[in-house]
Amino acid sequence: EEILSYRALCFLKATGQNILTSLLHPTKETIKATAYTVISIYLVTNIVEGMTASKRQKLDATSEWGRYADKPAARGQALSLLMMQLTPYAILPSLLDKFSKKKKDDLSEEEYKSTRAHKLRRRGGEMFADGLLKLGPLYVKIGQILSCRENLFPDEWITAMERLQDRVPAKSGKEAWDLLYDAAPGGKAGFHKLFRDFDDVPLAAASLGQVHRATLRSSGERVAIKLQRSRMRDIYDKDLALMKKIAKIVDKFGKAGQVGGIEQSWVSIFNDAESIMYREIDYRDEADNAIRFANDFGIGLGGVEIESTAKGVDGNVLPSAAEWLRTPYTYGDLSSEKFLVMEYVPSIKANNNEALDKAGVTLEDREYLAECLARAYLRQFCANKFFSTDPHAGNLGIEVFENERAPRLVFYDFGQACSLADDQAGGILDVIESIVDSDAKKSVSAFSRMGVLKDSADLEMVQAKCQQNYDEGKLKVKKRKSRKSSRYNTKEKVLAKESEKAELDARIDSAKQAKNTTDTSEGVNDLEVMASFTLQSEYAFVARALSQM
Predict the structure, then answer these.
(1) Catalytic residue among 296, 365, 390, 413
(2) In the annotation, is 390 catalytic?
(3) What is the top-level taxon of the source organism (predicted)?
(4) What is the pTM of this model?
């Protein structure tokens, strides 16, 4: 690489002299030669720059984040190259599956892992995750979101992208101390005045920062300190400015830029996303979000129960959720823009099945925890009117106890959070109730309350489509007893599931028979129905949160 770089410099020097000569004595041939030379210089410069960047990225995958923010064209080239490299890894496995004598579904897990298709998918997933990591923090965020969308990518790609949730390369040793002193209020002296020690090997690291253990001098309590990476605001300024231009371009395409036929302004959605993302790089805002979340759920220091600040639809204060939910206590008075101090709360990552098995977390426990997660978000949407928009597995943990107590869900990271207006929150609750009751008319009223129907919406058509979905069993919620009273009723659970399946099959068969005789919803086109809806930016974040759960 050094020899190539030297030869390139010699080439640039010689061609520069030739260009100067041709400009002094221009002819058709010299102008043509100059054009070829300029193109050659551009290509050689980019090749050398790319090779040098690749060498730096082998040592630190995040090394080019600042350069890509300064030179969007360089990132565009890197992104284009990544897409070209990924193409064969996306196409070949599908072809191998198609022409294989044994289909993927017929193979055992061990047999599939030995196939060429699996190896290609695994390599493609690693390449994709590495590429997103190298492109910058916003692309890491995209990878975190995609890692929760199991319906979009092969399992091998999902597994590869999961490391973007909390295993991004981090600074340690002297570099971690430098980052600490730069971020801590009062610098080096200010830190040592308040803290007794600091573990310079991070516990976890994501797109914006890394987390370290430390000890408070005043109480001796173990805390977790989140430190922000360098140049984050500068990188966000440049990356978000570019994305805003893209949003404006998409909006100009009108219906072609809409998703699923729903009218939305991408600029409006982006503006709200931009506001949330800028708050994410100010840890004082994250501290405020974390404190509000804990108060809404009635959770204090040590995970103890305190009085909740949230009220239900009846106006009464909601009970504390400390029995089934925990979040680290946040020391807002010790935190600053790049320095966040929290209670140290160890847990098992929510999707680490091997560790959960070793800790004795049973299938029934996991179903209970899944119910707790759904319960937590229902309360956030409909009562607290404030929710975390980023519930990927890196931000969710499971706290396991040595006694017979049920495991507890742990929420981390409130850098991205969103508030809902009263009608938005009430509308979401109305929609849920209408689905439970299979009430199409009530669904339309709920949509109106949420503000997602256009003034010109055809309400009869929307109601007819809702009724069709209910009749065909496409929308159905089964009311269940709380698991609190019978967490381990396995036999009853199996019988209930069989009963639910039989009931659902009967509903679908009935709907099909009805359709064969008299189809009242015939002609209700999905796209026509969706054209009656408009998407407010807050619901984009609701959808994002639900898609990652």
Answers:
(1) 390
(2) yes
(3) Eukaryota
(4) 0.77
